[in-house]
Amino acid sequence: MDDINLRSLQHPELSQAAVASIRRTLDRPNLFLKIPANLKATYQAFQHRDLSRYIRHGAPPLFVLVVGLIALNTYFYRDLLQGDNLRLWLSGSLFVIACTVAGIAAVWSRWGRRHYSAVVTVLSTLVITKLALFPSAFSDATLRVFEAYSCVLAVIVVVLALRLPFRHIIIVALASTSLVFLLDQMVPSYQLNLVNFLYYYVFISVVCLFIAWQMDEREKTEFFQWLLIGYNMRLNAELQEKLKNQANRDSLTQIPNRRAFEETLEKEWERLHRQQQPLSLLFMDIDYFKPFNDTCGHDAGDKCLKQVALSIQASLNRPPDMVARIGGEEFVVLLPDTDAEGGGVIASRIQSQLEQLAIPHPASDVSRLVTLSIGVATIVPDSETKPKSLLKAADAALYDAKAAGRNRVMHAGGSSPAAQ
């Protein structure tokens, strides 16, 4: 694995069925937790999280520990290291140092990190095999005891410190045991002390395997809990987004409401103030909507509002343009980077789009169809005026449109602070 840490590791998308299965797995007692096939790659990444940092900080102390122990014991047992014992000691020590250096050099590379478990498994098997063989090879009892302690230490380091998956620890134990018995049969001059081997290697390996099994099951449990945390975080994010949308959406027409409009107006005002570009606002009202409700009923009125909202939205072509419902039958359209002429074009397009819908209006005094009166105001934002002044100017233009007979577009007068 390359540089992976728990923060950068992405939570996978889980279905409700997968989450229910994980929860059932955690609720019932299991000797061996099973990782689903579709999550094995994620679990491997989870196991090797922060692997580069672990190698970078752990490899130098491991090398110093190995070389330091060998050097110290060579010094302490120098009187016993004579003849065959010396040759065995030097060859074995050099072999362990070579395996340690080879392992550190391998996992320091990108390739080695990607194949960390395989590299460490092979080299650990070789080192433990050597340390399990040598207690029966030395002629001196003190050296045999020291070598037995070294074997115990190596087993503990491999199982508890090298962060190997449990199945690889099993492979190391079985492979080392097999190699020891194979070499015992193949080398005539060598005779394995089976009692000592069972004591300093097999017994310790069984104890460490039990600990490794518990650590592996705990890591699987942490992985499942991490998955559930990610799933709950995603649900919370979706719920927050949904609540945010509900807070900023009109419940009937599903277009932005007054709150969303005011927030967007503030943002666009600041942006266009910096860029010194025009901002246009259309304020519109459905003509004679109350008589429409009284005549056709509230259900028909709600349907009419939805149709008008969709019609206005369909008239807008640019992503920054925004339509919002700010009152009963009142709508606004925000048009960034649009001058007064462009605002008038959009207003006329909205009226034409609504006319094509041909919504009957039996109670209107200006048309047999539902129509809109629209007020248009435009301004280049500056520090002396406020966004509400643009809304007031558009509202005043809408009032002029109604006073002039409705079903028309009127621009803000020259005395308005929003005049072009």
UniProtKB/TrEMBL annotation:
- Annotated GGDEF domain ranges read 277-414
Segments passing through the bilayer: 58-76, 88-109, 116-135, 141-162, 169-188, 194-213
The record's keywords, sorted A to Z, are:
Membrane, Transmembrane, Transmembrane helix
Q: Which InterPro entries match?
A: Diguanylate_Cyclase, GGDEF_dom, Nucleotide_cyclase, Rev_trsase/Diguanyl_cyclase
EC number(s) stated in the UniProt entry for this protein: 2.7.7.65
Cellular component per GO, a single term: plasma membrane
Q: Which GO terms describe its biological process?
A: cell adhesion involved in single-species biofilm formation; negative regulation of bacterial-type flagellum-dependent cell motility
Catalytic reaction(s) noted: 2 GTP = 3',3'-c-di-GMP + 2 diphosphate
Q: State a single Pfam family of this protein.
A: GGDEF
Cofactor(s) needed by this chain? Mg(2+)
Enzyme class of the recorded protein, top EC level: transferase
Q: Could you state a single Gene Ontology molecular function term? A: diguanylate cyclase activity
Q: What is this protein called?
A: diguanylate cyclase
**What is the species of this protein?**
Marinobacter zhejiangensis
